[in-house]
Design goal:
Oligomer: single chain
Number of helices: 16
Helix content: 55-70%
Number of domains: 2
Length: 431
C-alpha cells in the first residue's frame, strides 16, 4: 500500500469520525473534496477495499449522524425552504419519467443519483448556516479546483485529442472535458472574491489556483466556456454597482490580461470558429450540436411528458438512422426537455429563477447588517458564478450533473447565514 493511499485513508476516516463527534460540516467538506477529486479515478485507490471507495454513501451517512446528534445546535428558521422543495420536486419528476417515458434497455439510474444529491444538499443546507462555514465551503472548492487544475496540467498525452484535453480526471461528472471546463468557469468568480477580500496568504493561494483554472479552460478549449467567461467579464462590470465598480476594474483588467497571456495559438484558432454563422462553414462539432438540439426538440414534440431519464442517448438513432446510440444533446435545457418533458424543464427553470431571487432578497436584507459589505461581495460572486455556469450549460448536458445543483443551492446557504446574522445582531442590540 502506497504512502498516498495511507494518507487518504487517515484523512477519510479522520473526517468521518470528526463529522460524527465534532461537527457535521467536516463530513460535508470531505464529501465535496472526494466528489471533485474522486479517489476511484486515482492510481493509489488500488489496494483499498471496494466498500471504502463508496465515499458518497459513507460520508453522507456520517454527516447525517453528526447532524442527528447535534440537531439542537443547528440554526435554521424553516426545515424546508422553497429551493429545497423545488429540488425534491425535480427528483420526483426524474423518477416519474421512468413511468411516463419510453422503456430503456440500459437504464442509467439518474433518479437514484438525484435522490442522493438532494439528500446530501438537504443536510448541507441545514449545516452551512454561518458565514464562517460558508467560507469554509468556498475554500474547499478552491482547494479542489487547484487539485483538478494541476491534474489537467500534468495529464499525459493520451488524455488529449486534436490538441485539446478531453477527459480522464476527477469525478464521474467530469468525464466530459467540457463539463470540467464549466466547473472551472463556476469557481473563477468565487476565487476572485476570496482573492479580493482574503488575507495575503489566501490571495497567493487563490492566484495560483486561478492560474491553473484558466490554464485548464485553455487546454480544454471549450467554446461554451469562452462565451461564459466573456459574459462574466461584462456582467462583472454591470453588477458591481453596489460594491463599487472602481474597486472591481483593476482586478478585472488583471484577470483578463492573465487569461490572454495563457491563451495559445490553438485556443485562438478554435475560438475563431464562433464567428462562422454559415452552417456550411461550421466545423463538425458545431454543426452536429445544432443537429442534436433539433432532435431533442422533435422528441419533446412527440413526447411532451418526456421520453424518460437517460433515454435521449438510446433513442437518438430512431430520429436519425445515420447516428449511433450514445450521442448526447450537449445542451442541459434541451436534454431536460426531451427526457423529463415540459414539466421537468419548468421545474429546472424555477430552480434557476429562485436562486437569483434569493440573491436579490439577500442584497436587500443585508443593508441593515454590520457585515453588509462581505455579504454583498458574496452575492456578487454567486451571481457571476451562476451566469457563467448557466451559459456553459447551454453547450453541455448537466441535467443530472451534481455540480449544477450544488451551485443552485449556494444562495440558500448564504440566505441562512444572513438570517442567523440578523438574529445575532438583534440579540446583541441594547434594545
Amino acid at each position: 500500500m502506497s504512502l498516498t493511499t495511507i494518507v487518504y485513508l487517515v484523512l477519510f476516516f479522520g473526517s468521518a469520525v470528526a463529522s460524527v463527534l465534532y461537527n457535521p460540516i467536516v463530513g460535508v467538506l470531505a464529501y465535496l473534496v472526494t466528489y471533485h477529486v474522486d479517489p476511484r479515478s486515482q492510481w493509489w485507490i488500488w489496494g483499498i477495499p471496494p466498500s471504502l471507495a463508496r465515499y458518497a454513501l459513507i460520508l453522507g451517512a456520517v454527516t447525517f449522524l453528526g447532524m442527528f446528534f447535534r440537531f439542537s445546535t443547528l440554526k435554521f428558521r424553516k426545515l424546508l425552504d422553497g429551493q429545497e422543495v423545488l429540488l425534491w420536486i425535480y427528483v420526483i419528476v426524474v423518477t416519474l419519467s421512468l413511468l411516463v417515458g419510453l422503456p430503456n434497455p440500459s437504464p442509467q439510474d439518474n433518479f437514484i443519483k438525484m435522490a442522493k444529491v438532494a439528500f446530501i444538499l438537504f443536510l448541507a443546507s441545514h449545516i452551512i448556516t454561518t458565514l464562517k462555514r460558508y467560507e469554509a465551503l468556498l475554500y474547499t472548492l478552491i482547494f479542489s479546483g487547484l487539485v483538478l487544475g494541476i491534474d489537467v496540467y500534468k495529464a499525459p498525452s493520451y488524455f488529449f485529442a486534436e490538441g485539446r484535453f478531453l477527459a480522464g480526471i476527477g469525478g464521474s461528472d467530469f468525464s466530459d472535458g467540457n463539463v470540467l471546463s464549466g466547473h472551472f468557469v463556476m469557481i473563477l468568480p468565487l476565487l476572485g472574491l476570496i482573492f479580493i477580500k482574503g488575507k495575503w496568504w489566501m490571495k497567493c493561494f487563490c492566484a495560483i489556483s486561478a492560474a491553473f483554472a484558466v490554464n485548464s479552460i485553455v487546454l480544454i478549449k471549450s467554446r461554451g466556456s469562452f462565451l461564459a467567461v466573456a459574459a462574466c467579464a461584462v456582467f462583472a462590470w454591470l453588477l458591481a454597482k453596489k460594491i463599487g465598480r472602481k474597486k472591481i476594474l483593476p482586478y478585472l483588467l488583471i484577470a483578463l490580461a492573465g487569461g490572454a497571456y495563457l491563451m495559445d495559438p490553438g485556443y485562438l484558432v478554435r475560438m475563431r470558429t464562433l464567428e462562422k454563422s454559415d452552417p456550411q462553414q461550421m466545423d463538425m462539432s458545431s454543426s452536429s450540436r445544432i443537429h442534436f438540439w433539433g432532435i431533442a426538440l422533435k422528441m419533446a414534440i412527440d413526447h411532451p411528458l418526456g421520453i424518460g431519464e437517460g433515454n435521449y442517448l438510446h433513442y437518438i438513432a430512431d430520429y436519425d438512422p445515420g447516428l449511433v446510440k450514445g450521442k448526447d444533446t450537449h445542451n442541459t435545457y434541451l436534454r431536460c426537455l426531451a427526457e423529463l418533458g415540459f414539466q421537468g424543464l419548468f421545474v429546472l427553470l424555477l430552480l434557476i429563477i429562485n436562486a437569483f431571487r434569493i440573491l436579490s432578497q439577500i442584497s436587500k436584507k443585508v443593508e441593515a447588517l454590520k457585515e453588509k459589505d462581505i455579504y454583498l461581495w458574496h452575492v456578487y460572486a454567486l451571481r457571476l458564478a451562476l451566469i457563467g455556469y448557466l451559459i456553459v450549460a447551454f453547450f453541455i448536458s448537466a441535467t443530472y450533473v451534481e455540480d449544477l445543483f450544488w451551485l443552485l443551492m449556494y444562495p440558500l446557504f448564504l440566505k441562512r447565514c444572513v438570517e442567523n446574522e440578523e438574529i445575532e445582531e438583534l440579540q446583541q442590540s441594547p434594545a
